[in-house]
Amino acid sequence: MSPFRFVHAADLHLDSPLIGLRRRAEGYAGRIETASRAAFDNLIALAIDEGCRLLLIAGDVFDGQWRDYRTGLFFADRMGRLRKAGVAVVMIAGNHDAENRFAAGLPLTDNARLLSSRAPETVVFDDIGVAVHGQSFPQRDVRENIARAYPPPLDGRFNIGLLHSACTGRDGHEPYAPCTVEQLAAHGYQYWALGHVHAHEILASEPPIVFSGNLQGRSIRETGVKGAMLVAVDDGQVSRIEHRPLDLVRWAVERVSIAGIAERTEVLIAVSAAVERALAAADGRGLAVRLRLIGATPLHAELAATEAALGEEIETLVAGLGDDVWIERIELRTAPPPFAGKPIDPSLGGRLRRCLADLAADPWLAERLQVRVNEVRAKVPAGARVDALIAELDSEALEAAQALAAAMIEHGGA
Question: What pLDDT score does 100 carry?
C-alpha cells in the first residue's frame, strides 16, 4: 500500500451566523458573515496544498435550511476545485444536514460522494487501497447506535469509519448516534473520523478515534483553535496526525484579575494587557473576546454602579488595539475586599433579597419576560442556538441584580 494523506473535517455549518458579533462589529459585518466560507476555503487549500488524495466530511456541511440557495452553489463550486486537483470527497449528512430539504438534491461533481441514509455504505478507492464506511442521518434525531451496523473491515485496505455521533456524550451536544470508544476500537477500522462535537478531541490513539471539531467557532461557547485533521498513512498505518488551524475569527474568554487594584486607570491597563495576550494567541486572526473581570478590589462598588461607562471606556481602549478585535461581552465578577467600606444595614440587605426574590417569583413579570424572549427568538437567524444562552443569562440575572443594588447602596448611588 503506497503512502497517502487525507483530511478529516466536520461541522462546517456553511453560512452559519457568528452569534453576538453583528452589533459589536458593524464595520466588519461582511467579514464576520463570511467567516464559515473563508474557513472552508482554507480547508480546500489545505487538502490541495498538502497533496491529499481524500477529504472526509463527518456531517453538518450545512446549518439546517439554507437562507439562500447560493450556499449550495458555493459548496458545489468548491467540490469542483477539488476535482481539478484530484481530491476525492466522501461525506455523510449530520443532524443539521437532515433538516435541509434541498441538500439531498444538490448536484455534485463525480469526485464527491454523499453516503446513503438508508443503511451503512462503503466506498473503495483501489488506487490508494482505502475503504470508507459510513451512514448519513435520515432525520435530525438519530438516537440509535448506527455504528453497530457498519460493515466489517475489508482485508488489505485502510479502513476508515465516518460517523456523526456524540459518542458517550458531550456537554452542549445532543446524544445522537451514541456509541462507546471500546465499541469503535473493536470494530477493526484503522481510523474513525467523527463529527458532531465541535471541540477537537482524540478519544483513542490505537486506532485513532478523533473528533476534528468544527472549522470556525460560532459563539463564545466555541473558544480556541478550530480546524481539521491532516493524516498521513504509511504501510497501512497512521504515521502522523495533526490538527491544522483553519478558522478566520478566534473566540476567547479572558479572565482579568484586578485584585487589589484601587485606581480605575489600572483596571484599563490590566484589560489592555489581557486583550493583547489574546490577540497574540489568535495569531493574526480576528478575535472576539469576552472579558471577565475578577478579584477583590476596592473599586468593586464603583465599577458595578458605573458598569455602562466602564464598558464604553473598555470599548474605546480596545478600538485602539486594532481592527480585528471585538468585545463580545464584559462580565463583572469582582468582589469587595474584606471589611472594605461601610457595611450595608443587615435589615436593609434582608429586605433587598426578599424584594428580588419576590420579583423572580412574580408570574406577571415572568410572562412579560417570556414575551420578550420570544421576540428575540423570532429575530435570530435560522440555525442559531440561543436557548442555552438564554438559560445562562436567566440563571445569572437575579444574582447580578442583587450585586448591583448592593453596590449602588454602598457606593451612594440611586
Answer: 56
